[in-house]
């Protein structure tokens, strides 16, 4: 899908905008770009929403990132993007995994811009020392050697077994998305995720309607983790998507879209 280049100050973001109506902002996961939401963009636009799907700083066709991009910087970029687009109505912020880490910061820093949260396959805790160290190693490696080896290690973790076995189109789309990312942007986001805030204590203070979506075979943020988060957020709804891994919106688009639309229409 063709995006528009929108300058937001320090950087210019590539953004796909479709439809008219209540705004829904889609924040992609790592190390991906807006294309992971391809199966959501047209459907939500056709249902009467204004869908805003940016490539985050350092990803897709947006400007490159330097050294480290924190989750707060990503959240501030998105707030600036909404201001630039004159979106004054509070948005539904839908983030997957890293997009979810950004959603927490958007709630903490830009609450006035937020109407609802949809959190897909994500977590609220920060990294333990080992995981954080692993991210720094990966960041240095991709800067040195590029992303060629990344799909081999990442695809089996990102996708559920049913998708890996039976849905070549999704496997290949995800592989191509990872391979076209800029190593510098990927490294910068890894460094930012390694030092992200633990927001477990924030969950009980969330005061917007919230939906959590999780693939039943998500190996990175498993259903137990997301169910626990749903229990901690007042009034939160939880939808589990059968036969999907960490990339539920790509792996089971119809079921994910139904969960999103049911929530959007009922809250
Ligand atoms: C993602 O899908 O965005 C990643 O799994 C996030 C992470 O590496 O923690």
From TrEMBL:
The AB hydrolase-1 domain, residue ranges: 23-252
EC category name: hydrolase
Transmembrane portions of the chain: none
Record PANTHER family: AB HYDROLASE-1 DOMAIN-CONTAINING PROTEIN (PTHR43798:SF29), MONOACYLGLYCEROL LIPASE (PTHR43798)
InterPro entries reported in the protein's UniProt record: AB_hydrolase_1, AB_hydrolase_fold, AB_hydrolase_sf, Epox_hydrolase-like
Organism (species): Blastopirellula retiformator
SUPFAM superfamilies per record: alpha/beta-Hydrolases
Protein name according to UniProt: Arylesterase
MF (Gene Ontology): arylesterase activity
Organism domain of life: Bacteria
Keyword tags: Hydrolase
EC number(s) reported in the record: 3.1.1.2
């Amino acid at each position: 899908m063709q995006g528009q280049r929108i300058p937001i100050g320090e950087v210019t973001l590539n953004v796909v905008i479709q439809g008219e109506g209540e705004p829904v902002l889609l924040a992609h996961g790592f190390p991906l770009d807006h294309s992971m939401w391809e199966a959501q963009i047209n459907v939500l636009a056709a249902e009467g929403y204004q869908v805003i799907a940016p490539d985050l700083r350092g990803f897709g066709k947006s400007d490159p990132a330097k050294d480290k991009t924190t989750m707060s910087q990503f959240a501030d970029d998105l707030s600036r993007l909404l201001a630039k687009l004159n979106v004054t109505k509070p948005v539904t912020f839908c983030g997957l995994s890293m997009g979810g880490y950004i959603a927490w910061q958007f709630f903490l820093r830009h609450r006035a811009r937020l109407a609802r949260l949809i959190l897909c396959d994500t977590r609220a805790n920060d990294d333990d020392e080992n995981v954080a160290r692993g991210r720094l190693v990966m960041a240095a490696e991709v800067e040195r050697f590029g992303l060629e080896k990344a799909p081999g290690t990442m695809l089996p973790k990102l996708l559920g077994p049913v998708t890996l076995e039976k849905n070549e189109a999704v496997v290949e789309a995800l592989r191509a998305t990872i391979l076209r990312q800029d190593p510098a942007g990927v490294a910068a986001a890894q460094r930012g995720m390694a030092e992200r805030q633990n927001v477990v204590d924030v969950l009980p203070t969330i005061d917007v309607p919230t939906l959590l979506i999780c693939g039943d075979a998500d190996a990175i943020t498993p259903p137990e983790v997301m169910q626990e988060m749903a229990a901690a957020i007042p009034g939160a709804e939880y939808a589990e998507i059968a036969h999907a891994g960490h990339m539920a919106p790509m792996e089971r688009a119809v079921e994910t879209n139904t969960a999103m639309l049911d929530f959007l229409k009922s809250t």
